[in-house]
Amino acid sequence: MRPKSKNASERLQEIILRNRRSEKVGVYAVCSAHPSVIAAVVQQAVDDESGLHIESTSSQVNQSGGYTGQTPSEFAEFVHSAAQQAGLPRERVLLGGDHLGPYPWRGQPAAAAMRNASELVHACVLAGYNKIHLDASMACADDRPGPDENTIAQRAATLCRAAESAFEDLPSGTAPPLYVIGTEVPAPGGEVLEGAAPAVSSASQIYHTLELFRTAFDKQNVPSAWDRVIGMVVQPGVEFSEDIIFDYDRKKAMALSSALPKHPNLVYEAHSTDYQQPAALAQMVEDHFAILKVGPWLTFAFREAVFALSLIEHEWLAHRKGVRISQVREALESAMLINPTYWRSYYHGSEDEERLARAYSYSDRCRYYWGDATVQKELAHLRANIDAWPPPLSLVSQYLPAEYEAIRSGRLQHRAEAVIEEHIRIVLRVYAAACGA
Fold first, then answer.
1. Tens digits of per-residue pLDDT, 110-154?
2. Kind and range of the H or E element at 436?
3. Within 13 Å of residue 281, how many CA atoms lie on the same side as its CB?
């Protein structure tokens, strides 16, 4: 008789235990709802014979649709469908909720914002999310100047109770949700920094924070959930902004790395690890920052590939009679100017500096606009043009040299979407290697 396959939660817990034993293994969590990113990470998991770990934020996906227009159940179905089409077994897919808390409703009083947040957490667990990041660190409308650590812990425990309540409604045998906690949590979508590297979390605060959360869980009558806290969000000193990357310095993080508690048996979850050097990511995993979150770097890679294909398209087809060249870049810029909501508070400077940031910033705020109807139409036209008239490989080599080599070797199809996903997977392979895939 074949042994029973481990489910996604068991796989994650096993990796955490191995990391705590100082094995050089970890897991990367992809925080994105972009279809090309999802397709790329699914295929990466298939090729690596690894688990698939995908998370949606409270702003991307929520009961009102979020900026993607998807509810938790719709996002879960989207991911599982992509995995099934690629031949990835369902038990190898771990869905997570990132920054689940009052952030999308922070303009409301705390009581109303927390009601919405509890509803979101409940919906995520019912939709099959296995890992829940309880994030009540942001200030609501009546929080002045902001919630203290005790309030954050109490609100997180309230959200945990909503998750546990939802779990009770699931079929017998369903794996219970795993939790990530913490008070030093960066804002969803990245931070606005003024050039100073973020301070590494204080090792002396770890036990204090854990005790606050444990007490809060007891008060909310969810003590059994405490044993399923598998991660704690801390600041290892990494971050990125519009045009700056703050690199990991393991010497500065040494005290924090050594401060892991014996119980609960958790590791650190590192947010905003995008754009770190491969060696730095591997060091972070070794230093028990074993859950690496990545998101903007992947849509940044998507944008790079799309822009490169647009240049190839122009060189190849601009002078061909009867062919309309796509206007992807123009459509994207227009969408961002019409609705500056997602970038205005992030990009500053002259008109030209803002123009460059909208396209090329590490913050990658243009990721919020790929779903715009006109942008989607032009993207489809770009793909159709490239596929109908495949450009010469010498031209591909000019703009996408890594993909050129992959096509030449026979490993990659000479098609637009295959090229785009391969460019994203260049980043994913860095994370897979750091995590010991």
1. 999 999 999 999 999 999 999 999 999 999 999 988 899 999 999
2. none
3. 25
